[in-house]
Amino acid sequence: EWNTTTAPGATMTTLITGGAGFIGSHAALHYASKGHNVVVLDNLFRGHAAAVEAIRQSLPAGHRSAIVFEHIDVTDHHETAAAFVRHRPARVLHFAARAYVGESVSQPIECWHANLTGTASLLAACKAAGVPKLVFSSTCATFGEPAPEQIPIRETTPQRPINPYGASKLAAERLISDFAHAQKIAGVDFAAAFLRYFNVAGADPLGRIGEDHRPETHLIPIILQCMLGLRPAHNNTLSIFGTDYPTPDGTCIRDYVHVADLVDAHVRVLDALKPGEVRAYNVGSGKGFSVRQVIDAAERVTGRTLNVSLAPRREGDPATLYADAALITRELGWSPQFANLEDMIAHAWAWFQTHPNGYG
Q1: CA-to-CA distance for 282 and 265, rounded, in angstroms?
Q2: Residue 215 preceded by cis peptide, ω within 30
Q3: DSSP code, position 9
Q4: Could you tell me if residue 89 is left (phi over 0), alpha (psi between -120 and 50 degrees) or otherwise beta?
Q5: Distance from CA of residue 261 to its chain's centroid?
């Protein structure tokens, strides 16, 4: 519900890069609904202006001006810096990125430019506008393929990325750390945190916004699109890549976190950061679900049967990846409120049923 209180920080400006994308839009929804002024920067390469408009329309009529959209590519230093000076944000959430692993392999220049040059541009803008806090959207891909004895993945697990996406995100983490150190030496208060997520799923529990990737590469949306007959080019059939992994049912195991819980992690980190700090947290459910388990849960939630085909393993797919999220729980009291796989699928299913064409 709309928060009409005058709690400390209720009118501060939060700037969100990539705020028209899946995770960024849910962060924008949270802050806008809490009475913050929200500035969304997005180049709309994969984001949707309609997501920002949906957030605006969800607010009371007299408060819809609280969310502002700027059609800006964060790699454009001059436009980004100008936007920061115009809006003087009190905190920044940096989601803007090229986030497709396969695309990063085939288009490494574009990946590195968006993820590293974009972060450098953003930091320069933070410096020009005196922004004191930044939370960076990082990824479990910075860890690469940990050995089985390193599962669950902790913050101390060695970071050895195996693709340009993970490597560019790790480089951006290091750039932010160097920037924070330089600011500290200069006597300037600046704090940053890296949140390394695992598989993000679900949608706004109230159905206001949801997930719309083009192309779609995430397991749960693909399953639901197949069930709705929205993937005719694939015969509305899900391919299971590998059924002979050393897991209980032979399929890969991954960690899923609800997008609303992920946003809650960002909120807690931003509130907790103190001047000069640099923190890093893993954000996941702390347990893994196999591909077969996800399919079974989707069939229970929807009451429909999924068409599947079996395919060989894909190169580079580890058998098991899931997080140890004990650090963020211990330090910030965060824990997933929607840890149940059925809840994540149910919220996504509600979105896809009412928005079969996404924001289109």
Answers
A1: 10
A2: yes
A3: T
A4: beta
A5: 11
Distance, CA of 188 to CA of 91 (rounded, Å) = 15
Q: What angle do CA 272, 275, 280 make, to 5 degrees?
A: 55
In the chain, % of residues over pLDDT 70: 97
| Cα–Cα dist 352/355, whole Å | 5
pTM above 0.85, yes or no: yes
Between the alpha carbon of residue 34 and those of residues 23, 28, 89, the distances in Å are 17, 10, 16
Please report, to the nearest 10 degrees, the dihedral formed by the alpha carbons of residues 307, 310, 316, 317 taken in order: 60
Question: Which residue, 283, 234, 276, is CA-closest to 258?
Answer: 283
Q: Which tokens go with 319? A: 């058998």
Contact 200, 140 (CB under 8 A): no
Helix axis angle, 49-58 to 22-33, nearest 10°: 20
- pLDDT grade, residue 335 (50/70/90)? very high
Sequence letter at residue 284 = G
Report angle CA 201, 206, 210 to the nearest 5 degrees: 40
294: left (phi over 0), alpha (psi -120 to 50) or beta: alpha
Give the separation between CA 4 and CA 36, rounded to whole angstroms. Answer: 10
User: Which residue in the block uniquely carries the two structure tokens 């500035």?
Assistant: 39
Single out the catalytic residue among 31, 165, 197, 256: 165
118 and 96 Cβ atoms separated by less than 8 Å: yes
pLDDT digits (tens, 9 = 90+) for 65-91: 999 999 999 999 999 999 999 999 999
Kindly write down the DSSP assignment for every residue of 154-182, as one continuous string: -TTS-----SHHHHHHHHHHHHHHHHHHH
Partnered with residue 71 across adjacent β-strands are: 42
Q: Is 256 a catalytic residue?
A: no
- Give me 204's structure tokens: 């706004």
Among 93, 183, 91, which residue's Cα sits nearest to residue 135? 93
Token couple for 293: 């388990």
Q: What is residue 314's three-state secondary structure?
A: coil
Please, are residues 84 and 78 in contact by the beta-carbon 8 Å criterion?
A: no
